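request received
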Amino acid sequence: MIVKMKKEATREQMIHVEEILVGKGFQVRDISGIEYGVIGVVGDTSKIDVRDVEALVGVEKVTRIQEPFKQANRVFRGEDTVIEVGDIRIGGGNFTIMAGPCSVESRDQITEVARAVNASGAQVLRGGAYKPRTSPYAFQGMELEGLELLKEARKETGMPIVTELMAPSLVEKFDEDVDIIQIGARNMQNFDLLKAVGKTRKPVLLKRGMSATIEEWLMAAEYIMAEGNPNVILCERGIRTYEKFTRNTLDLSAVLAVKKLSHLPVIVDPSHATGKRWMVKDLALAAAAVGADGLMIEVHNDPENALCDGAQSLTPEQFEDTVRGVEQILNVVGKKM
Amino acid sequence: MIVKMKKEATREQMIHVEEILVGKGFQVRDISGIEYGVIGVVGDTSKIDVRDVEALVGVEKVTRIQEPFKQANRVFRGEDTVIEVGDIRIGGGNFTIMAGPCSVESRDQITEVARAVNASGAQVLRGGAYKPRTSPYAFQGMELEGLELLKEARKETGMPIVTELMAPSLVEKFDEDVDIIQIGARNMQNFDLLKAVGKTRKPVLLKRGMSATIEEWLMAAEYIMAEGNPNVILCERGIRTYEKFTRNTLDLSAVLAVKKLSHLPVIVDPSHATGKRWMVKDLALAAAAVGADGLMIEVHNDPENALCDGAQSLTPEQFEDTVRGVEQILNVVGKKM
Amino acid sequence: MIVKMKKEATREQMIHVEEILVGKGFQVRDISGIEYGVIGVVGDTSKIDVRDVEALVGVEKVTRIQEPFKQANRVFRGEDTVIEVGDIRIGGGNFTIMAGPCSVESRDQITEVARAVNASGAQVLRGGAYKPRTSPYAFQGMELEGLELLKEARKETGMPIVTELMAPSLVEKFDEDVDIIQIGARNMQNFDLLKAVGKTRKPVLLKRGMSATIEEWLMAAEYIMAEGNPNVILCERGIRTYEKFTRNTLDLSAVLAVKKLSHLPVIVDPSHATGKRWMVKDLALAAAAVGADGLMIEVHNDPENALCDGAQSLTPEQFEDTVRGVEQILNVVGKKM
Amino acid sequence: MIVKMKKEATREQMIHVEEILVGKGFQVRDISGIEYGVIGVVGDTSKIDVRDVEALVGVEKVTRIQEPFKQANRVFRGEDTVIEVGDIRIGGGNFTIMAGPCSVESRDQITEVARAVNASGAQVLRGGAYKPRTSPYAFQGMELEGLELLKEARKETGMPIVTELMAPSLVEKFDEDVDIIQIGARNMQNFDLLKAVGKTRKPVLLKRGMSATIEEWLMAAEYIMAEGNPNVILCERGIRTYEKFTRNTLDLSAVLAVKKLSHLPVIVDPSHATGKRWMVKDLALAAAAVGADGLMIEVHNDPENALCDGAQSLTPEQFEDTVRGVEQILNVVGKKM
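response:
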């Protein structure tokens, strides 16, 4: 950690800051320049908030050198984490496709889509039972009934299921019923929810928040891991930028960043990233090419009448075509599906 | 709502789209140009998701003309909403200052700060009992004990209290104990939490999400109002941009936008917006000048040793100076404190 | 174009707006809802500035339906533009790699790099003679001498050269000396420069501005084309976002957007997008997978001592490895190098 | 400057980096932690590009502590720069209003507006002769004729004139004809243009680029100053963000940041920042309250028929009202007009 003093800070103020840091167990080194006092701080600074040091009198700016996440940090665990969901292994050279409708709408719909995506090679079935919608007047999901239908579809196809959890009060229910618990982008910093899923040992699919930095995203994973649950799968789903042609801007460099900084697996959701069906296949290929550990793709048997996100859902035929393309890319990059 | 067809869309596809819209009770008008088919849709489109119409075959893009919020919309309620908290009136020409520490740390601390800000003219006491922190290793607040200390400080000073709620399970407790329930920026789209506070009649301070558009923010207010609670106070606290000199970028034009689009009161939090103590006063003056209905300001009796956000907390003396400046601005713009 | 009137606008104001629009040769359709007057405007609105219509009394908002670009618009030219540079064809199923150092530093350096990238399969040699640097104290390029060295390297290897033009006064010189004129991100809306290169018939590589929307980027292309030069190659090089882990955020969905909206070729620059050497190969593969028409990659024979952008430059060996990977991806997506 | 080595970097690599830095005249201090090697670099690092150090083998990240601007830096000049334009003094406790139409359209128009804004208290007349427009098909300004009309308006009213320069070839003409040369947001990093105006001694109004950081903005000022022209006036005009309700997002905290980091005067343009006439007055008051050194405001005698930016232009009456409000705010903050 580097502490830059103000130009007008006194020698006493700098000593005061150093004493406080030493009192907290750090070593300090004077690396002052001509214009400013600068203190280099040596020790494990991951549990200090840089902003607290910035509050000290005479301090202008504090810069962290070490990343604030520990358990999610590749520095402390060199090999890739591989997460097992039944027979499926996520991360570490495996490539996993999760597919299904935005929301569960009926027994026929979810079963039909499940069979189709399974036949094309998807390994995990997605489907929303509880839906976070911008408008209170929009369809909010089939809720518990939707969960039951997902379970039926799992029974029918043998595919594990992933679905979004929005309320801490439902954690136990989800822990029992589903195979992977999804935390949506809007709840990436809903810390109560993160702590609640951290108390289970269920794999958690943690979507990147709409405008979360990579560090904040890994800190959200750290919340889950700090409670004892190491099974976190990250999911890049586009970030909010000034460009409005797409729903969000897919940040594929984030896949590389995460793999550098962390040992956790990271998959990509091109459906939410773009909001446009006709972009999904090509970005799925790109995600496979860049080195993602999998994909999450929305598929609907009747996108025109979907109760949500029809505009970004593939038909089963388009999904089949996408998976075939992805397979070829995986051959090139040396991953297996 | 305007539906633009693809250039290659057939006449049949356009008729199909029109039929679906008519089937949903809308009137349609053909306003096609030379290159594209375009349909103007007349009727209350606030309950349709434009993205669902975009899912129809042949459709390229759908643009909403009408805002999707109803109860928060000034179109349906011309006069300003005024929210009463005890004797205090928020909105409608009144100017309300909420002040206090980032987090409650001890009886002495909260009482001392409460007395000081009260003496300077703050009407509402803020203080976090449950703290959303980026790191799981950072101080998470005194929780229930903090809530009790806030109540004591209220008793002592007579100031109503505002504090952040993070878990739906604590809504009843907060409804009983606090005067204004704060929903933090990270939870602006935690819809379960919004619905829960919507079921109370307690005033809710709704902070703008880190990268929420004004429309999404008002839709979050709509979630609360749709459950029956009309007492929503909005709080602009800076948005996330590429500029990192400040913690966030304070968007004072949002105050004007909200006042145009909605009848709800809107206050400004310059402390979180900037993260820098030395910017707070001048931006507080600017917020008063632009027409905000109040301020939320962090004040600490010992910022150097604050357990959170010391770097952005004013001392009681700095707060006093800020309030005196704000008063003079309010004289110019014709508001009263 | 859709004109939404204010709620409080009078009938007379709406008629006034309609008369003005009719006077400009448009047809108008009343598509008013219950709360607002709304006018649908039919005709070629590409030469109207929506903001001018917004200036009319009673108007609240104007939304364009038709894109404002004409010559760059795929609607008016269905087939891909293919740009010829000597024997090389850019666009239309071809894949072109442009490579070389950030800046020309010496005869040895540019010749050595040119030979290496040529041997690996690059078709065009890049190299900066005039360098836009954030700091006036940083190396500004070898200027005319650099241009001469580039020409020598062309002579030696037979590769056409692309280099950045910053001053309108040098257009003639560049038109004579180079094969492709590059317009950098910072100058994407330097309209004088765009007009100047528009007056030549030389292929122009137009980089996307740091925070340019896709529409603004295509409008910049339109500036060049409107002067008579149809030979525009677009280059996505990352956009500015809140995320600072990478230098910029590479927007691969922009490739798809451009291909949908325009017939112009679009290539990708992963070096500037990320600023990180170790990300370049994987994003190059992703760019090939998503459907880009080529790549621009920085290569240096001695990155440690490069006078600019060494941190993002590949060594010749890394470049060779990248090209071999890209080739395999091109086999999958059916493009040829 | 702080150099963080990669975890896997060898001791030799770290020594190599240290040697290179010492060879460039710096002192180095080892401030390594347990996981990483870290080097503190002491000396004037303003002329090093951090990215060049990042290119060294074994280096992970380089962080600058010292700002890279010198002449614009308040550290090297404590007192405010005051720029004189005839009798007018800009900066240092003075408040200057520049007003006029977006573009010069006719003798009558510019003269009429000039008289009106002069009567209301504007000290400088603005008006575009050369207009940067997103579309090549939009009105590009009256060019030289517009310049002549501006000079006539100056003669008539005695007000100095400010107008935008877009081409380096016109620098001499502008130096002779105008009182303040404006560099527009799109050209903030048009370094050829910056160098050209740097060679004059004419006051330069440097608008902040659409997505320029404060540091980049001050570096652009540094380009002008490094050529010998110290007369730079900065102008905040809104930045590009995800929020599209306003044309840009006005960043009033930038005024405070600039005043902290630099001694140069900084004014605010609420017209371009918002694009909405009805927001201009309130944000002008806020700009005065926050401590800006002046305003630039668009005024048109007939906004409905303005050839550009009518939607954001005030009428002379609205401008008069705005100036009267600003005066009252200036009384509060202790500035004089």
